C-alpha cells in the first residue's frame, strides 16, 4: 500500500491537504468552507465519512475556516498543540470534548496506520508546525508558511519521497506591489513566507536527499503566479544540473482547486 496525497486547495484563499493510507483518511488544515472542501474532494471520489483527523498547522483563518464545521458534521477529531488550541477554540465553534486532541511539537504520534511528526516552524503564529508522515516504508512532508528553512526543519523533511513546499512570492513582485510597507516587511521576515528563490534553493537539498516529487504550495495571489514559481524553482535547480522531468517531478498546486491524486 502507498500514501495517497491531494491538495484540496492551496493559497491565501484557503489551505487544505488530503492524505490517505489503507483505510486512514486525514486532512491537514481546513481553510475552506465545509461545502467547498466536500465539493473539491468529491471531484476525486473522496468523501469525508470516517475521516480520522484534521491536523492544524496554525490558527490563521486560511488554515482553520472549515475545521469546526467539518468536525461537527462528520465527527472528526481535531489535532493541534496546546498553544494553537488556546487561540482557535473561540474561532472554530463548539467541538466535542473527545474530538479535541492535543499533541506536543516534535513528539511523534499515530493516527491509526500513519505515524505523524509535528515539528516547529518559523511563522507569525502562536506555535506553528509542519508535518511529516510515515507509513513504515515511505515518508512525505507538508511544510508551508515558512519564514525560513533552518537546519532543524531541513532535518525533519529530508528523505521524504514527496514534499509539499511553500513557494509564496516573487521578491521583486512583492517589493513593487500594492502591499503596505508593514505587510511587505512581514512577508519578507523570518516569520513570514518563503520566496520562490528560497524554495528553489531548498529543493536542491531535497533532491540530493532522495525527494522524488515536489509540489509548490501557498502561492500569493498578488505577488506570484504559477508559471513564475515553477520557472524560478526549475531555473535554480538547473543551475545545479538537476532537471525537472529527469531528476524529479515538479508541480504547482492551484489556489482553490483540487490537485491530482498522487501515489507515493
TrEMBL record:
Metallo-beta-lactamase domain residues: 13-193
InterPro entries: Metallo-B-lactamas, RibonucZ/Hydroxyglut_hydro, WalJ/YycJ-like
Name assigned to this protein: Phosphoribosyl 1,2-cyclic phosphodiesterase
Organism: Tepidibacter formicigenes DSM 15518
Amino acid at each position: 500500500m502507498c500514501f495517497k496525497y491531494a491538495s484540496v486547495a492551496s493559497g491565501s484563499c484557503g489551505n487544505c491537504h488530503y492524505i490517505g493510507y489503507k483505510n486512514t483518511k486525514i486532512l491537514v488544515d481546513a481553510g475552506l468552507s465545509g461545502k467547498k472542501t466536500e465539493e473539491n474532494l468529491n471531484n476525486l471520489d473522496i468523501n469525508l465519512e470516517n475521516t480520522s483527523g484534521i491536523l492544524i498547522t496554525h490558527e490563521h483563518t486560511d488554515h482553520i475556516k472549515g475545521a469546526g464545521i467539518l468536525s461537527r458534521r462528520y465527527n472528526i477529531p481535531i489535532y493541534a498543540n496546546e498553544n494553537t488550541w488556546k487561540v482557535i477554540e473561540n474561532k472554530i465553534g463548539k467541538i466535542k470534548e473527545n474530538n479535541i486532541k492535543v499533541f506536543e511539537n516534535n513528539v511523534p504520534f499515530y493516527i491509526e496506520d500513519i505515524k505523524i511528526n509535528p515539528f516547529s516552524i518559523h511563522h507569525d503564529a502562536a506555535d506553528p508546525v509542519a508535518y511529516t508522515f510515515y507509513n513504515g516504508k515511505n515518508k512525505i512532508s507538508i511544510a508551508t508558511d515558512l519564514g525560513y528553512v533552518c537546519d532543524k526543519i531541513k532535518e525533519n523533511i529530508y528523505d521524504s519521497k514527496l514534499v509539499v513546499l511553500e513557494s509564496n512570492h516573487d521578491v521583486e513582485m512583492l517589493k513593487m506591489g500594492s502591499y503596505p510597507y508593514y505587510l511587505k516587511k512581514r512577508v519578507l521576515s523570518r516569520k513570514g513566507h518563503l520566496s520562490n528563490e528560497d524554495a528553489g534553493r531548498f529543493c536542491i537539498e531535497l533532491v540530493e536527499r532522495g525527494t522524488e516529487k515536489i509540489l509548490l504550495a501557498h502561492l500569493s495571489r498578488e505577488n506570484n503566479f504559477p508559471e513564475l514559481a515553477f520557472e524560478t524553482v526549475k531555473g535554480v535547480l538547473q543551475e545545479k544540473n538537476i532537471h525537472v522531468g529527469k531528476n524529479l517531478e515538479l508541480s504547482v498546486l492551484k489556489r482553490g482547486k483540487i490537485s491530482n491524486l498522487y501515489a507515493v
